[in-house]
Amino acid sequence: MNENRHSVIIIVIIIVGVILLSKLFMIQVVDDSFLRRAERNAVQRIVDYPYRGLISDRNEELLVYNNPVFDLMVIPQEFNIEDTAKFCDIFQIEKEKLIERYTAAKKYSWVKPSPLIKQISTTDFAKIQDYLIDYAGLFVMTRSVRAYPDSIAGSALGYIAEIIPRQLERDTINYYIQGDYIGHSGLESYYEKTLRGKKGAKYKMVNVRGVDKGSFKNGALDTASVEGMNLQTTIDLQLQKYGEKLMKGKRGSVVAIEPKTGEILSMVSAPVYDPNLLAGAAYSKNYNVLLSDTTKPLFIRPIQAKYPPGSIFKVVQSLIGLQWGVLTPKTTYACNKALVACHNHPSPVNLFGAIRNSCNPYYYQAFRQMINQEVSSNTYKDTQIGLDKWHEAVEKFGLGNKLGVDLPYENSGSVPSSSLYDRIYGKARWKYSTIYSLSIGQGEMEVTPIQMANLAAIFANKGYYYTPHLIKAINGDPDNIPEEYTTKHDVGVAAHHFDMVQDAMAEALYGTAMRAIIKDIAIAGKTGTAQNPQGEDHSVFIAFAPKEDPKIAIAVYVENAGWGGRAAASTASLMIEKYLRGHIERPALEEYVLVGDFAD
Amino acid sequence: MRQDDLYINKIDWLSILLYGALVMIGWFNIYAAVYDEQAAKSIFDFSINSGKQLVWIGTAVLLITVIMVADYRLFDNLSLILYGVFLVILLLTPFIGKEINGQRAWFEIGPFRLQPGEFAKFATALALAKFIEKPSFDLSQPKFQFQALLVIMIPVSLIMLQPDTGTAMVYFSFFIMLYREGMPQKYYITALVFIAISLLSLAVDNNLYIALPVAGLTLALILMGKKNWQRIVTLGLIGIAIIAYSYSLDLVVSKLPQHQQNRIMVLFNPDIDPLGVGWNVTQSKIAIGSGGFLGKGYLEGTQTKFDFVPEQHTDFIFCTLGEEFGWIGSLVVVVLFVALLVRLVFLAERQKTRFSRVYGYCVISILLFHFMINISMTIGLFPVVGIPLPFFSYGGSSLWSFTILLFIFIKLDSHRIQLLGRMN
């Protein structure tokens, strides 16, 4: 009666087989997530960090290189020292520190390496190298930190440091991982992708405890790292060094540009800091010291500081007036001190005299002509139309917007337009008498030192400029630099209008900036004195030289150093001499600037 | 003497071939499981498990020879004595056994470790065959059902003292043999319903999902059939019992030791605690699942090699196969087991005596149970129970006991004509 039951049993056996094979098919063939999980389990990716690109000056003198440092790593399982005191003596580590680090390493992993002593210098490493063999469980991992042979141009070069969460969020292609080094400022940040190279990866197999079990697929998936590209900057090492020397003990900026190319020859942000402070082991300590320094050494003054342009802006006013036909070289106004204050000079003056003598009433009157051209019978409306037209013309001089220099955190400065005054005073509630201080570069005008240097380059070039930049070549190839730095910008003023302006600027030195005059080198310049309600005025000077074939355009801002003819003009003149001659023939002037007591 | 009268031709060589294939594949897998690329040793190296397994295989061949040349009547005559001897050994094991993983299930004799619970299986199988042998033994009667159950339950209760739940569970596989021998079907249907309700109750969060359909089904059955009071009450009580059981199961589970609770819960959600309790199942599934269709190649597996899978050369040996030979490898092994089992059913059915048939079905029951539960637990179909995969898993006790179990049946089968003669 039970004979047919064996068929049931056979069916059960086959069903069991089919169920097992179906489930196996599901996890082995249909669901491929197990393969990825297996690889995550057993395959460890080890990043092969590339060498970061080097940075050199325009003459290929090294500004930034990589200094090897050594991390002494420990594998707790293998580590065993008999004489702790001797160990501490050899490896220059305090006993407490050793115990602390070793405990932390053990806590992290018994079999995986952890750093025991970080960032040992090459010299210190040479001392301990021979002893390493005596200690099991120790090995050395080589890394590199940035080093700066001349300790200059910190603010332009920037620094690298561990990536911060905000930067990690911006990294949409997931190139970086926590703990990676990345440019935080300056060229290091702007050219991060060029400098960083490409990480490689080695795939290693590890067992369940993380112990290395050899290469994965015999290294078939491993990729080599690609070295970062080298940057050649436009900086002139000698000039930069000299500029930093001159600005020692002062606050301000020096920006020197090669007018024909827009290449930044020197960019000094005073007070300067030694970029070596922000490389290597003491980074966070030094960073906090610099950050809390009241003289703000980390503030990149040439591109971030904003000042009223002062008298220097009168040159721009003259050029716009000439281009518009509102002014001609023969246009004459009386030096009417009832309108704005002025210093003593013959009156009335023509345009040449106005530039030469920096005549405030002249520009008060000229600017009114430029703004109120009676396009509208309504004075308010007419002022608004005039101001916006003027605003557009001024912006063409690279003012009021970021220039686009190849550094992060550049400031735009500001050139007011009608909308600003509408916001302040209300629409059609303001007229020329409200805004007249713009005529002499005061009021709501603000420019950065680099914009001022760029103005000097525009005057030198008679009407055009290249965006100031710090990059000269990438990996030795000058054609590799971003296109925006080889694009000519025209300021919209005919070249012939510049002739008279250049002559007046050359003449002006004899009036306001005698110290700037260099024997045998024709300089054209303009002083400015930016009024500073908080204290002593800022000393401002822009210049270019030689006048007939300009090779350098420069802007110098020295904060709280009085009027432009002293500190700024002297510094600019010395910089020009240094650049054009290679040496200084006026030791007295150099001494005057270095002492820095610009009392006259 | 005619050619086909030779004893050698009466042996079922197909079963032996399937056995040999499984043992050899198993041996290669044990080597793969312990293989270390950086310190590769020969498969014959006695310092690693593959070398030791070769010793077990060699001695198993000796055991086979002894069984095949021994007098076939021996097993019949010794069955109850063997059963008695093993009951005594099992009784002593918890007291003199070596403690491993909280269990005293092992005897240590010099360098060898033997697990009496494994060997007691064939003794119990022989004893069952002896008991059921008589034609008057009618499993439809409660008296005989009780006797059979008693033969099974004595060793089970002794093994539970060790305690070795996995091995004890295997003895319940004899119900497959009892089914063939006439145990009423209603028990099996009840058991299947019971298991189904248990699984469903554990799988769903809200027992209403079980209670409502069961109530609905009960109502439908009442309305459809004859409407006499007796039937309505019976069906109603069954329905209520099922629902009550479903609700009480959670309570029962919560009374289990924590590690058993966890093993059950992990079955339904292996991601509950992937690094804790779920670790074994998760890693085992990763190893097998990552094998893909064709596998990673022999000795190329990473999960088993680098110790992600625990107990990979014993209870989790199937992981090595799944990882290195993929679905195709799994298919070959599953098919080999199914083929062996089906072949054994065929052999059992051709027996002339009830003794050898019952014994044959006991062999089938045990092998099927081990095969089904072991592979199921490695792929997450069944909670982790520590039982080996027959012929595959590393270890002398396991290989010897399965070999003895199987070859006594092959021996009996080869004498099926003589056995009949003797009986008559």
TrEMBL record, chain A:
Q: Which GO terms describe its cellular component?
A: plasma membrane
Name of one Pfam family that matches? PBP_dimer
Main location class = membrane
Q: Where is the Penicillin-binding protein dimerisation domain?
A: 49-210
**UniProt keywords, alphabetically:** Carboxypeptidase, Cell inner membrane, Cell membrane, Cell shape, Cell wall biogenesis/degradation, Hydrolase, Membrane, Peptidoglycan synthesis, Protease, Transmembrane, Transmembrane helix
The reply to whether Repeat figures as a keyword in the UniProt entry is no
Gene3D superfamilies registered for this protein in UniProt: DD-peptidase/beta-lactamase superfamily, Penicillin-binding protein 2a (Domain 2), Penicillin-binding protein 2a, domain 3
Instruction: Cite the Penicillin-binding protein transpeptidase domain residue spans from the record.
Output: 252-572
Q: Entry's InterPro entries?
A: Beta-lactam/transpept, Beta-lactam/transpept-like, PBP_dimer, PBP_dimer_sf, PCN-bd_Tpept, Penicillin-binding_protein_2
Q: What is this protein called?
A: Penicillin-binding protein 2
- In its UniProt entry, the species of origin is given as Echinicola strongylocentroti
Gene assigned in the entry: mrdA
TrEMBL record, chain B:
* Chain ranges passing through the membrane: 12-34, 54-73, 80-97, 146-179, 186-202, 208-225, 232-249, 325-346, 358-385, 391-410
* Superkingdom, natural source: Bacteria
User: Is Cell wall biogenesis/degradation among this UniProt entry's keywords?
Assistant: yes
Q: Which GO terms describe its cellular component?
A: cell division site; plasma membrane
Which keywords belong to this entry?
Answer: Cell membrane, Cell shape, Cell wall biogenesis/degradation, Glycosyltransferase, Membrane, Peptidoglycan synthesis, Transferase, Transmembrane, Transmembrane helix
Instruction: Give the primary localization class.
Output: membrane
Q: Name one Pfam family in it.
A: FTSW_RODA_SPOVE
Q: Where in the cell is it found?
A: Membrane
Molecular function per GO: glycosyltransferase activity; lipid-linked peptidoglycan transporter activity
| Recorded topology in the membrane | Multi-pass membrane protein
Keyword field contains Chaperone: no
A single GO BP: regulation of cell shape
Q: Which species is this UniProt entry from?
A: Echinicola strongylocentroti
UniProt-recorded name of the protein: Cell wall polymerase
